[in-house]
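quick one before i forget lol
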Amino acid sequence: MKIEVKEVVCDWGIFINGELSKDLIFNSKANAEEVKRIIELDIENKRFDSVHQKVNITKGEDRMLNQFRKASFIDVGIVDYSGTVPQVLLSNETRLVDAYLYPELVKVLDEKG
């Protein structure tokens, strides 16, 4: 099976074996490429993790991040520096950063939990 992304007028389409799949037309070339990648993974029976996008980093950055992960006193947060004293708005200690970055993962619980 041959899968290609090609320009269709002012959009991008996925062509399977040379034929445009009418339900797979996108405004964004990046989105079309991602769907093509998922189809190829599916053909190979590989799992697709849609939650986390890959981030390209250097070997030095990778070493630095691994050192940060080992330090129990370092956490991720969103800080407001607009005032005279920085204030932590969201902290990953409570997983609020993940909730902010990935709203599709959020499940709002009632007061009882």
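fyi The radius of gyration is 21 Å.
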